[in-house]
Amino acid sequence: MNARSCLAIVLAAGEGTRMRSARPKVLHALAGRSLLAHVLAAIAEADVTATAVVVGPGQEAVAAEARRVLPQAECFVQRERRGTAHAVLEARAAIERRPDDILVVYGDTPLIRAATLRRLRAPLAAGAAVAVLAFRPTDPAGYGRLIIGNGELVAIREEADASAVERAVGLCNGGIMALAGVHALAILERIGDCNRKREFYLTDAVGIARGMKLEAVTVEVEEDDVRGINSKSQLAEAEAVAQERLRQAALAAGVTLVAPQTVFLSADTKFGRDVVVEPYVVFGEKVTVEDGAVIRSFSHITGAVVGKGASVGPFARLRPGTRLGEGARIGNFVEVKEAVIEAGAKANHLSYIGDASVGANANVGAGTITCNYDGRDKYRTAIGAEAFIGSNSALIAPVEIGEGAYIGSGSVITQNVPAHALALARGRQVIKEGWAKRLRALKSLGKKKAHPHG
Ligand code: UD1
Ligand code: CA
Which of 121, 90, 89 is nearest to 186 (CA)? Predict the structure, then answer.
């Protein structure tokens, strides 16, 4: 625990222009959560004592996301987008409370980790006024270059303002800066807008601190920690990094991923012990897979709890509100939504189970459909423990199938079925002995409209 107080300022006022999107940039999703949520999660783990989020005008959705993830976050609005330093100063009220350290984190840098933020703060405790996260990107295009003189950081030059020589510099600004609280306002207020974009650049803090005879330092990190997202292409690259981190964490926690590269996870996916995930599985948000469960190939799971020893797929879809009990089995081409499948119950083939409860050890036959929707409202189906639903049955909700009841195959069930009863709701079979033979005989006599009566 760091004894110094720390204010984190998250800049999230960007629009989605370069993303070619109507959605604010920081609300784009990475591994199942917003860019902003990733940044706030790292901040929450980095011994920060207060958080300010700067949002653009009319970006109520961004402020709402900030409050959802971190309810104590204070939101400030940057009415005009006049640069990163201008955005930081929108949080002036928080800066004036004089925290020991200030961390400025860009909302479009979602791969940042708490450990990296802690490393960046360390030089402040040792007396530096400014610390900048530095990295050497494979492609430096678009990043600010770190200008080093006599082994020390003297300035940051934005690409648009850089000379050819400066552009050749490989060391870049990761876009995360730590400022000593005592000097922050003095430095920020000196920043001007004399540059190509006529913006107030936070990056000028370095040159200004130098001019004030204060110390500015760099902390070098891996490219992956500070990848900034300005385009859909960079978003896809960051997704690949996030997925690789999540896969490695799952493997390290003992999950068997038969082909890790083909499994897609969410930042909040939770696994118990001895879980096996076969190739080609997608986990959306809010999924928990308990001990010993097996997720077979080509399954898509979102908002579900897969109980101990349960088995899912291949080719299964679990939608939000699904809870599978211990040892439950959901097989191929089965979709489950908002339904509890109790321990030992099975739906092995071609079914839709929505807004339902299926009791322990019940068997839902192939092709069973819970008809939960009448075009306006949704209704529930309750299937009792040990019940047996014959194949290709339609259960028209609201309806209850009692414990241990049997439903004959092909039934359309519209009324409740008492426990241990048999329900048949289908046309009765008719047999006409010798009928086919008579038909063929008539045809052979050349009768066009042959119909063997009786
Ligand atoms: C910025 C840095 C650059 C660095 C790069 C790292 C500046 C001037 N440049 O460039 O040195 O290499 O990040 O990714 O800081 N924002 C606001 N209000 C504004 C302007 C920006 O809130 O008026 C927010 C944006 O939403 C974004 C962040 O600040 O989250 C950075 O802005 P962006 O325009 O993406 O800066 P870059 O050009 O990427
Ligand atoms: Ca950026």
Answer: 89
Residue from 106, 112, 231 to probe ligand 1 pocket by mutation (most atoms less than 8 Å from CB):
106
Q: Which of 349, 420, 451, 453 is catalytic?
A: 349
Q: Which two tokens stand for residue 84?
A: 């990163």
- Whether 300 is a known active-site residue: answer no
Residue-by-residue pLDDT tens, the chain, 454 positions: 788 999 999 999 977 678 899 899 999 999 999 999 999 999 999 999 999 999 999 999 999 999 999 999 999 999 999 999 999 999 999 999 999 999 999 999 999 999 999 999 999 999 999 999 999 999 999 999 999 999 999 999 999 999 999 999 999 999 999 999 999 999 999 999 999 999 999 999 999 999 999 999 999 999 999 998 999 999 999 999 999 999 999 999 999 999 999 999 999 999 999 999 999 999 999 999 999 999 999 999 999 999 999 999 999 999 999 999 999 999 999 999 999 999 999 999 999 999 999 999 999 999 999 999 999 999 999 999 999 999 999 999 999 999 999 999 999 999 999 999 999 999 999 999 999 999 999 999 887 777 777 6
Instruction: State in Å: Cα 385 to ligand 1 middle.
Output: 58
CB 91 within 8 A of CB 179: no
* Residue 381 and residue 395 in contact, taking contact as beta carbons nearer than 8 Å: yes
Q: Where are the domains of the chain?
A: 6-226, 253-423
Atom 13 in ligand 1: which residue has the minimum CA distance?
Answer: 175
Ligand nearest the Cα atom of residue 11: 1
According to DSSP, the β-strands at 406-407 and 388-389 are parallel
Helix (H) or strand (E) holding 205: helix 205-211
Same fold: 6-226 with 253-423: no
Shortest-distance ligand to the CA of residue 84 = 1
CATH number of 6-226: 3.90.550.10
Q: Which CATH superfamily is domain 253-423 in?
A: Hexapeptide repeat proteins (2.160.10.10)
Of 215, 163, 208, 188, the C-alpha closest to 7 is 188
Does the predicted model carry a pTM greater than 0.85? yes
